[in-house]
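Appendix B. One record, verbatim.
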Amino acid sequence: MPNHSCQIDSGVLRRQHINDIWKEIFRKSIHICGAALPFFMGRFYWIVIAALFLSILLYSVSELMRLSGHEIPIVSSITAVAARKRDENRFVFGPVTLASGILLAALLWDRLPASIGIYALAFGDGLASLAGKLFGRMQLPLTQGKTAAGSLACFLAIFIACYLASKESCLALIVASVGMFIELLPLKDYDNVVIPIVLGGISQLYLGI
């Protein structure tokens, strides 16, 4: 009987782990989609800026309504699917900080530095979490569960994205190193704001724009 109980517990944990991975893939696919925004900003800058403002406002209203028991079709469903355990029965801030980080980077920095910051957020932060879930075996001390695999994926993703955008290997190395350090900090959803602003600012200083 004890062995049968252990098998049931093991099956439940396995299904929960698979569910967590699919949820993380869904969440981070939203992150990665943000990499398309610099392209559209180059052609419809103010339309994209207005759309980001509007998306933050509408999402916030939707979340407040969801918490009060009035769900908005599609939006509330997507939020429920993407929400993590720590977000249950709470305002899910991830989409707000994601859109805010992209918006602030676009407003603060010139096109190329802002694009680098946005790419770092989309690919670096997005792939770090996925790599940590899929391949993370070694957890790093004092990082609240961050993994070596996630940090390496973050560094490589930011380095490649920054180099392809700027053709500056030294800048890519600096930005990737700082981005990896920020990703290790226990910032929760607020790394969505810190990463594009800080890395975009570093890029602007380096490029002397």
